[in-house]
Amino acid sequence: MSEHEENNAPANDKPEYRRGIKSFVIRAGRLTKGQEGALERQWPVMGLELQQGPINPVTVFGRDSHVVLEIGYGMGQSLVKMAEAAPEKDFIGVEVHLPGVGSLLNLAEDAGVTNLRTYKEDAIEVLKLIPDNSIDTVQLFFPDPWHKKKHHKRRIVQGEFAQTLRRILKPGGVFHMATDWENYAEHMMEVMEVQDGYENVAGKNEYMPRPEHRPLTKFENRGKLRGHGVWDLMFRKV
Ligand SMILES: C[S@@+](CC[C@H](N)C(=O)[O-])C[C@H]1O[C@@H](n2cnc3c(N)ncnc32)[C@H](O)[C@@H]1O
Fold first, then answer.
1. 61 pocket-lining for ligand 1 (C-beta < 6 Å)
2. How far from each other are the two terminal CA atoms of the chain, in whole angstroms?
């Protein structure tokens, strides 16, 4: 998300607005022909809908495998690369930005991956449909940082979110976060270190070195070129 969009986001501190707080703003954005075509061809194959109700990954993929859930995959480059590199695992993506979903499907089609499904919905709604103890890894890479203090409540990493993820993670499953915004990294650490039922894989208050299996996205590359740092955090369900 651009800073411009964030600055224009509504900031309403009235308590009645807190309940429906969103971690995103829907961005206008036209679909490219490629994204539109991929949505038409691949949505019936790879799309998951809220109306389907609760899902069981074993049924969705027709096998009992290591399941990765990625929240907010953007244009999907990194998720498709991961799915391609690990055909023995299964991947579920969640993204609200329609051009991003089209882009993911386009890339997935080109790569010929079959171990990937996606929702085009708010992750908060999707998480309600994921069974307890069913996911091995939850990935949250470069979530919208909501830089301004008055917008911090829109950050998706909060205690309640962490506990929802704990519910869907298998015992020993990992919640993996990455961000290039130091203040958000510190916020993630503060929230996660006090959560019951998690341990920091790197050790108390420590960050992880960037794991090899997390491909660099365009977004991250751009940040690196501008001299930004990147922080990886991994918390295991205990
Ligand atoms: C800053 S972008 C990062 C995208 C990608 N992970 C990357 O590293 O390039 C954050 C993405 O999260 C998505 N997002 C934010 N909140 C979401 C939510 N509650 N459910 C699904 N997607 C969400 C946004 O639409 C956006 O595409």
1. no
2. 34
User: Per-residue pLDDT for 15 more than 80?
Assistant: no
- For residue 71, what are the β-bridge partners? 94
Residue 14 has pLDDT above 60, yes or no: no
Least confident of 39-48, 73-82, 226-235: 226-235
* Cα 199 to middle of ligand 1, angstroms: 25
- Go through the domains of the chain in sequence order and give each one's CATH number: 132-238 (3.40.50.150)
Please tell me which residue in 144, 180, 196, 232 is annotated as part of the active site.
Answer: 144
User: Residue 3: what pLDDT?
Assistant: 37
Q: Is 24 in the pocket of ligand 1 (CB under 6 A)?
A: yes
Contacts of 199 by beta carbon, 8 Å cutoff, 6+ apart? 235, 236, 238
Instruction: Kindly indicate the confidence band of residue 19, based on its pLDDT and cuts at 50, 70 and 90.
Output: low
The CB of 230 under 6 Å from ligand 1? The reply is no
Please tell me the predicted confidence (pLDDT) of residue 104. Answer: 98
Active site residue 122: no
User: What Å distances lie between residue 22 and 27, 144, 156, CA to CA?
Assistant: 13, 11, 8
**Contact 154 CB / ligand 1 (< 6 Å):** no
Work out which ligand 1 atom sits closest to the CA atom of 27: 25
